[in-house]
Amino acid sequence: MSEQVDSQIDWQYDAFIAYSHCQEDFVKDFKAELENHELKIYYDENFLPGDSLILEITKAIFHKCKRVILIVSHDFLQSGWTTYEAELTIHKGNDMNRLVAIPLLYDIEQEQVPDSLKLLKCIKKDDDSYIENIVVALKERLQSPLRICPLNDQENICHFAYFFSDKSTLDHHLQNICPNRLVKCQNQGCSQDVKYIQKNEHENHDCDYAIADCAECKAQYHPSNADDHTAQLCPKKVQCPNAQCQHNCARDKLVRHRINCKFELVHCSNDGCKFIYRRCKEKNHREVCHFARPRLFAFPFRKRHDDEESIISSRPHRECSYCQYILTSVTDMSDHIRECPEQLIEVPCGCLEYKIFRKKWKAHKRICEKEIEHCPNTPCVFEGTNLEKHFEVCGYQKIKCEKCNQTMLRNKHKIHQEETCPEEMIMCHCCKRSYLRGENKHWCEEGEKTVQCRFDRCTYKLKQCAMKSHEACCKYRSIKCDKCNKEFVFLQRKSHEKNAQAIS
C-alpha cells in the first residue's frame, strides 16, 4: 500500500470519526455539518447490529475511509476503544507513509496531547473556523509520500521525523543531523557505539576509558595508566605503612624506602625457618635461629668458647643424614629430623607425584591452588587438604576411652588401656583369673605364696604376685650384648663392655 498514491485508491468515505460516547451529541451535529459540505462521513452508528466492533473499526480505518478525525478529549484519552482507534490510525499512516490523522481538540490543550500526536497539526474546537479547516484538509489529496526517520525511540524523539520528502534528504539526516544516530566514542581504547545525543555524557562520565582526575594532585590520566600514576607519577607525599616508621616521602620513592626500612616485616632467609621479624631485629634472630647453617657441633643456642673444645670432642654426637647437622642427643635429633629442610617429603596437598625438599614446601604453598589446612591440635604440625581424615589418626586429637569414658589424647590411649584404665579386664599372672583393674584388691592364694628369685646368686624372697616386677630389674638377671650376641649378668655389664672394646 505504501507504493500506491492517493488517486489510485477508491475510498468509500472521506473520513472516519473516532470519539468518546460522552461527546455523542456533538459528533452528530459535527457529522451533519461536514455532510453539508458534500463530504462522506463514517462512524460507529453506521455499524450493523451484531457486527464485531474490532473488525468493523479496522475495516473502516484501513479500507473504507481516507482519513480519520480524532475527537481528542479527556474522556477520549481514558477510553480503551478510542485509544485502540488512535493506534490503528497511526499504524495506517506508517503503513501508507502518509498523514491520515486529523486531531480535533475538544476540551484539552495542546500540552495535554499524547506523544504520538504531538507532531501533527491539531485543530481546536474553540476556533470559529475549525469546520472550514477540516473540510479543506479532507478535500485535499493526502500529502506526498514521506520518509520517516527510523531512529525514533521513546526516550529520544527525533523531531525531524516527518520532514523528508525524498530518500537523499533522509540519508543526509541520518548521517549528519539525527540526534539518535550512532557514533564512535572518542576516548582512547573504547570501541563502543553510542547515540549522538548521549555522546558527551558517555565520554565524560559513563565510559570506562574516560580521562580521570587524580583526587590528590588534580592531574589527568588515562584509566589504563591509573596504577602507574598512583605508584610512580603522583607527587603527593605519603607516610611509610610500616608500624613505628614515621618516614614521609614521595609516592614514587616509597618502594625504594621500604627495601631498606628497618621496620619492614621480613621472613628469615634460612631454609625451613618460618619466623617473621622486623629488619632491625634480624641480627638478634640469626643468633638463635634453629636453621642457621653451618654449625660444626650441637650448641645451636649459644656460642662455643675455646675451653670447651676438649669437652665437646669427647662427647658422643650424631650427624643428620640429610643436612649433615651435628647434634649430641637422640631427642634433639628426632626434633631436628621432623623439620629438617633437606629431607625429601611428599607434599601434603597431593598435587605433585614426586617428593620435594621440605625447604621448597613453603614456596609451593604460595602457588598451590588447593586450600592447605593446618591441624589445630597443638603441637601437631600436620598440613594438608583432608583435615577430617587426619583427625581420625591424629595423635594429639582428644578422644574418650570406650570403657571408662575418660578424655585423653589418642597417642596416650594405648598406654591408658594397658596400665591405668579402671574398667579394663586384666589377668592375674598367678591364678590366671580375670578381674577389673579398678577393684580395690584382688586376693589370690597363689600370689600370697612366698617364692625365691629364679636368678642365681639372688637371695630375694617375695610373694609370687610381686616377684615378676622384681625379676624385671634384678641385678643378677641375664642380658644379651648388642655387639657380640653373648649373654652375661647385668651386674657385670661394665667389665663386659671394656673387654668387647679391647677385642675390637
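The record above closes out task 2.4. Task 2.5 opens with a second protein, given below.
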Amino acid sequence: MLRGTVEQARARIAEVMGAGLEAAAGSKREFLSRPSFFMVYLADGLSANLQPAIAFALKKVAAVSGSPVAHLLDKHRRAVSYALLSALEANSLFRHDATLGEYFWGLQRVNLAKSGNGTTPFTTQQKVLSLVLLIGIPALIDALSRMHKHMDRARQLQDVTSPAFECRVDASRLRRVAAWIGQRTESLFIAGFPWCRGFWELLRVACYVLYLRDHMHWPTPAFGVIGCSLAFTPPEISSSAVSRALYWPHEVLKFFMPMLLLGYQSLQWWYSAPRTVAPSRVSALPPPPPPKLWKGVRLGDLTHCPLCHRPRANPALLTSSGFAFCYTCILRYVRQHQRCPLTGAPANESQVWRLFLSRH
C-alpha cells in the first residue's frame, strides 16, 4: 500500500513538472517570437536614417565629380533620395515582408487578422500601405518643416522691414479678401504646425512605451493603421557557399550596428545643432542684396545726395530703402510724395533718421 502511494506521488510530481516545463517552453517560444523594444527601435532608426544618408552621398558625389548630371541630382537630391529609398523599401517589403531595417535585424511583418486556418499572410494591400506610410509620412513632415521654416523666416523679415504685405487701396475687394484669407491661413499654419508635429512625436513615444510594457501589439501608429505587427524570425543558414560566407559578416555587422547608428546620430547633432560645449568658427556674413530701383533710375556717386547731386549736408537715412540723402532734400520729398525717390517704397517722416558720421 505504501509502495502504491509512493508511485502515485511520483507520477503526480512528474505530471506537474512536465506541465510546468511545457508551459515554460511555450512562454519562452512566445517571448522569442515577439521582438524586443531595443530591436524594434534600431530597425526603425536604420530605415529613418537611410534617406539623409542617400542625400548626403548625392551631395558629395556632385561636389567631387562636377558633372552636369551629378549637379542635377544634387539639385533635386531630396526627391531623388526619396525615390531611391522607395525602390529599396518596395523590393524589401515585397520579397521579405519587412523593411530594410527590419530585415537586417531578422524581423518580419505579420498580419494581425486571423482566419479559420490560423494566421493570415501579409497581403499585397498591406505591403503597399506600408510603403506609402513608410515614405509618405517622413516626406510630408520634411516638406512641411521646410515650408514652416521658410514662412516663419519671411514673417520675421516682414515684421522687421515694414509692411510689405499690405493691400493697396485701389485693389479690388476680392483681392483684399483673398489676401486676408492667405495671411490668416499662413499665421494658423505657422502657429499650429509645431503643435501638430509635437503631438505626432508624443503619440509615437506613447506607442513605444505601451509596446515596451506589453500592452500593445504594434510599436508605432503606422502598424495600427496597417493592421500588422513584428515577429522575430531568426535567419536560416542556407546550404550554399555564398550564404555561409555572408552569414558571419552579417552577424558581426549586426553586433556593431548600434554603435554605428549612435556615432552617426552624434555627428548629425554635432554639425547641425547649435553647440555651446565647443568654440565654433563664425563664417563671414554675405553682403546684403542691393534694393530694387525704379526703372530709369541710376545711381551716381554714393557720397552725394541722389536728389541734389551734391555732397550730403546733414546726412539722413530713409529706413524703408536704406539710402542716404541730405536731410532737407529727403524730408521735403517724403512730405510731398510719401515714397522713396529711388525705389518707390512707401515712406513717411518717421522713417527719416539723422546719421551721425565720424569725420576721421
